[in-house]
Backbone:
């Protein structure tokens, strides 16, 4: 029987090992704990939850809830364990960290097809490999990955701008144009007059920032959080007009509503090829999410904006996946190597775990000479893998589960809750159809 090496026993690695093992494939699962710890990890057990004990919402009409439904249908190890170790958290699925880790560890160690090895991997081994070492991959393994894919395709910080849905924007205040009318009108532009700009500026420089983790404040030069990328609030604090000479510069743009150049302009750029999501150019931020919603909603046209992701600034090792990986998270130039988890550009606990399941399903079926399975883009896992494969390689940023990455419905539904319910039902129907057709092939 074929053997697979899985490197990293976090959520993605454990899900990958569990899925492969349940397919009858022998797995050797490596993790450097407890021999060695990253700056963020403290507990000996597998699947340690570092930043939060919440796995987000459970409602099936939410992106996080839909993702959980799909994971349960695909045989997840972490979802049943989360049910067993849950703690009260309103509508969210939150767990006792230690109990969650202990139970996953117990199940992994008891599986006859999984051999767990506590040892740091510094070189990519021979044979089929799934690399799921997460956002704090060791320097040695990072160097090995860089030598395989090239230095320019591995990033060590996550400086992401907020993303909003196009259909939530007030297009009466927003206009489409590129600077100096060069090329296609690729940007949405939110013009500000002086009064609007100054009000926005004053709220921005006084907004509450999010605290950094200790491991994000130090380290080698590669891991400086703000290297080469300034948070918008830090830029604003350098002076009242700094943003107007940077990401909010109005030169080359004319507001069709006034016929004049605006005082300042916030530009939005397409985040996906369908043009359903746009990111706020230059708005990487280290503000608390509630503050981002409050302050960024002051931008003309964004008063009712639906944020699919907020800006973040933190340490994160990840790949320029659109240049490197296919839809199954397989390395294009070496089909024996797969990646899973946050390294691929999926952002979040459940997103990482879900990618581990999908990667293992894909590799396992290849090893067993079974028909390939591709999860439809109507599913949340399929949409995430599609984003990883087709995102913009020139500015690729990690993405969490959100309804904005799913294909639009044929009919417009104004009620957001009803829309999300329909999207969720469509996703589960598409998943069942894909699984049935694959098994019958």
Residues:
């Amino acid at each position: 029987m074929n053997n697979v090496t899985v490197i990293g026993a976090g959520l993605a690695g454990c899900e990958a090992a569990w899925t492969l093992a349940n397919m009858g494939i022998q797995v050797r699962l490596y993790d450097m704990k407890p021999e060695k710890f990253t700056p963020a990890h403290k507990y000996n057990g597998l699947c340690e939850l570092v930043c939060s004990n919440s796995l987000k919402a459970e409602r099936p009409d939410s992106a996080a809830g839909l993702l959980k439904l799909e994971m349960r249908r695909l045989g997840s190890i972490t979802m049943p364990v989360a049910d067993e170790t849950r703690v009260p958290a309103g509508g969210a699925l939150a767990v006792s960290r230690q109990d969650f880790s202990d139970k996953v560890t117990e199940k992994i160690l008891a599986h006859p097809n999984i051999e767990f090895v506590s040892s740091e991997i510094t070189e990519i081994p021979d044979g089929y490999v799934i690399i799921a070492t997460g956002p704090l991959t060791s320097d040695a393994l990072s160097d090995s990955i860089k030598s395989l894919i090239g230095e320019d395709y591995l990033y060590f910080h996550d400086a992401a701008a907020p993303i909003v849905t196009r259909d939530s924007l007030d297009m009466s205040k927003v206009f489409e144009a590129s600077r100096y009318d060069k090329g296609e009108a690729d940007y949405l532009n939110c013009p500000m007059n002086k009064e609007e700009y100054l009000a926005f500026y004053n709220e921005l420089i006084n907004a509450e920032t999010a605290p950094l983790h200790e491991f994000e404040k130090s380290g080698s030069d590669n891991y400086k959080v703000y290297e080469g990328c300034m948070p918008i609030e830090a830029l604003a604090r350098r002076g009242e007009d700094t943003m107007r000479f940077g990401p909010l510069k109005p030169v080359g743009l004319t507001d069709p509503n006034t016929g004049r150049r605006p005082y300042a302009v916030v530009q939005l750029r397409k985040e996906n090829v369908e043009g359903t999501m746009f990111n706020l150019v230059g708005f990487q931020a280290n503000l608390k999410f509630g503050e981002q919603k409050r302050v960024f909603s002051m931008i003309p046209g964004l008063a009712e904006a639906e944020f699919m992701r907020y800006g973040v600034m933190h340490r994160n090792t990840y790949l320029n996946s659109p240049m490197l990986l296919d839809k199954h998270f397989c390395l294009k130039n070496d089909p024996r190597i797969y990646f899973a988890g946050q390294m691929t550009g999926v952002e979040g606990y459940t997103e990482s775990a879900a990618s581990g399941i999908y990667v293992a399903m894909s590799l396992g079926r290849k090893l067993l000479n079974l028909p390939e399975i591709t999860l439809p883009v109507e599913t949340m896992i399929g949409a995430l893998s599609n984003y990883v494969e087709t995102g913009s390689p020139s500015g690729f940023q990690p993405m969490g589960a959100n309804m904005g990455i799913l294909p639009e419905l044929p009919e417009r539904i104004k009620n957001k809750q009803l829309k999300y319910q329909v999207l969720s039902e469509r996703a589960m129907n598409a998943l069942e159809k894909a699984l049935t057709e694959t098994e019958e092939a």
